[in-house]
Write a structure and sequence with these properties.
CATH architecture: Roll
Oligomer: single chain
Number of helices: 1
CATH topology: Pnp Oxidase, Chain A
Order of helices and strands: EEEEHEEEE
Helix content: under 10%
Length: 140
């Protein structure tokens, strides 16, 4: 059994899959959490605000290079002209320590696909938007 990950690590050790296909040539990603917090001012709190987290969503923004012939990259690019549930897929984010966050029916919002300056490599830029609660499987 491999030793558990400790300390710092390079971001490239994170991996992404769409419909169980690894996506090639991902260059950078960012993650944002949109948290719904309800606030209220109870009289017995002497003017201090009370809060409760009541909602969550996750957006993963990925910048990649369009790689024709790679199953994962092709799967993302194929969603560029889709709408509704046709623009959804099962997305897995694997952390360097082996933890996997699985998003069932995530909305894949393709933002750039293959366009750019003549001397640049074609981009594939997309957002993965959670669609319900993800499943988090801790590293074993």
């Amino acid at each position: 059994m491999p030793e558990p990950l400790t300390g710092v690590y390079p971001c490239y050790e994170n991996q992404f899959k769409l419909d169980n296909k690894t996506i090639a040539n991902c260059e950078a990603f960012s993650v944002s959490f949109d948290n719904g917090v309800e606030e209220w001012n109870a009289m017995e709190k002497d003017g201090w605000k009370s809060r409760l987290m009541t909602a969550k969503s996750v957006t993963i923004s990925v910048t990649a290079k369009r790689t024709v012939g790679d199953a994962g990259n092709d799967a993302v690019a194929a969603l560029a002209f889709k709408n509704g549930t046709d623009a959804q897929g099962d997305f897995d984010w694997t952390f360097p320590d082996g933890t996997v966050v699985s998003f069932d029916d995530a909305v894949i919002n393709v933002k750039e696909c293959g366009a750019g300056e003549s001397t640049k490599v074609a981009p594939l830029v997309f957002d993965v938007l959670s669609n319900g609660k993800p499943t988090v499987t801790p590293a074993s």
